[in-house]
Amino acid sequence: MDVQRRDDAAAESRAVEFTGNWREFLPIAASNLLLIIVTLGIYRFWAAARERRYLWSRTRVIDDTLEWTGTGKEMFLGFLMVVAALLPFFLFIQFAFPAMLARGYEGMALALFLVFYVGIFWLIGLANFRATRYRLSRTWWHGIRGGSDDSGVGFAGQYVGRYAVTFFTGFLAFPWATTSLWNKRWEKMSFGPYAFQPYLSSEGLWRRWLFLYALPIMMFLLLALGGVAALG
Hints:
Layout: H1 2-13, E1 16-18, H2 22-38, H3 44-57, E2 59-61, E3 64-65, E4 67-68, H4 72-102, H5 106-137, E5 139-141, E6 144-147, H6 153-168, H7 174-186, E7 190-191, E8 194-195, H8 206-231
Antiparallel strand pairs: 1-2, 2-3, 4-5, 5-6, 6-7, 7-8
C-alpha cells in the first residue's frame, strides 16, 4: 500500500504527463496514411495537424492540457513558400549551370553553384528556426501561447557558419555545432512572457561521436590489413 501511495504521489507530482494511448491514436494514424496515399502525399499537412491536435490534447502540463491550433492549410502554404524559395536553385542546376559549362564559363558556374549551395544551407537554417517558432505559436496552454519575436535571419547565418566549421574539421565539430545551434534557437523562443533558457551541452556527446567517427576508419583499416595479408 505504501508503494502504491508513493507511485500515486509521484504521478500527481509530474509536471508533464501524456495520457493518450495507441488504441486512440491508431485510427487517426491509419486513416491519415490512407488519405496521404490517395492524395499522393498532399494530405500529409492536414494529417500532421490532426495528429498534433490529438497528441497535444493528451499532454497535460501541471493542471491543464495543451491545445494545438495550427491547420493543414497553414503548413501547406508554408511548404509552397519553401518550394518557391528553392525553385531558382533547381532552375539554375537544371538549365543555367550546364549551359555555362558548355560555353566555357566553368569558373563562374562553380562560383554561382557555391553561392546557391550556401544559400540552400541558409534557407534550411531559417526554415528550422521558423518551424520551431510556428509550432510554439500554435501551442496554447491556459490561453497562453509560445513563439518568438526574432525573424530567424541571424540564426540562419549561425547555422551556415557552424556547419562550415563542421565541414572544414572533417565533421569532428558536429556535436558542438548541433548543441550550440539548439541553444541558439531555443534562447530566442518564449512561452508567454517567459523566455526559454536552454543549457544543452556537447560534453557528453564527444565520446560517443568520436567512437562513431573512428569506427568506419577502423573497419576500413582492418579490411585493408586483411586484404594485404590475404595477398601476401
